[in-house]
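Suppose you are handed only two things: the residues of a chain and a line of SMILES describing zinc ion. What would the bound structure be? This form records exactly that question and the answer produced for it, so the two can be stored side by side and reused later without any lookup.

QUESTION INPUTS
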Amino acid sequence: MMRTSIIRDLVILLVIFGFIWGIISLFPVFPEKVELVSIEREQELGETYLEAILKNSDFEEVTSEEMTNAVEAIGLRLENALEGSEYDYRYLVVDDKMINAFTLPGGNIIVTTGLIEFCGSPEELAGVMAHEMGHVEMRHVVSRLVKELGIAILTSGDQFVMGEVTRIITSTGFDRKQEQSADLFACELLEDAGIEPRTLATFFRKLRDDQDNELLEKFEIVSTHPNFTHRIREVLEYVPDENFEEIPMEIEWEEVKGQLPEGRVSK
Ligand SMILES: [Zn+2]
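ANSWER OUTPUT
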C-alpha cells in the first residue's frame, strides 16, 4: 500500500517536471529583446544595410529629381506631423516594376517606381509611407530581424548576413497584429498631416481588386494580411476629428509618373 502511493507520487512529480520542462523549451526564459538594440545602433545598421542593398541587389536608385522630390515632400509632410520621433528618415526610390515599399532599419523607406505607378494620387503613396513609418516607430523592422537572426548575428555586419537581411526585408512580411497597428498608426499620422486618412481605404480597395497581379507578390502590405475587406472596414471606421482640415498636396502627380523610366507608361 505504502509503496504504491510513493510510486504514484513519483509519477505525479515526473509529469509535473515534464510539463514545466515543456513550457520552458517552448518559450525561452530570456528571449532577446529588441530594446537591446539602441536606436542609434539601428541607424548605423540601417546605413550599412542600405549601402549593401544598393550595391548587391538589382535595385537601382532613380535619378529623376521630380520623382525623388515628390517622395521626399510626402515624407517630410508626414515627418512634420510625427511627434517625438527619434529616427532620421530617409526616402529612396528604386527602379523596379514590382509594386513594393519596404523599410530597412533606422527609418530608411524604399519605394519602387512600380508603386508610384500604381498609386492614383500622392495621398495614396502617403498612406503607404505612413504605414511603413508605423513599422519603424513601433520597431517592427528590427524586431523581425532580431527574431529571425538574433542580435549577435544581426549586428555583426558580416557580408553573408547582409544578403540574409535583404532577403528577409524584401520577401517576408510582418504579423497580423503588427499590420493592424501599422494601419491604425497610418490613419492617425495621415490625419495629423492634413491628409484624409480614409484614402488608405481607397488604396486597399485597389489592392483587393487587383490581388492576382503578380507585380504585387512582394508587397508586404499584401503578403501578410491580405484580408482587405476587414482592413478597409477598419480604416473606414477611423473618423477624423471634426476640426480636421485637408491640406492638399502640391504635387503634379501625373507629371511625376511621367518621369517613369523609358518604356513604361503610367496608367
Ligand atoms: Zn505592413
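WHAT STANDS OUT: The pocket of zinc ion is lined by residues 131, 135, 174, 179, 182, 220-221 (CB under 6 Å). The chain has one domain: 30-243.
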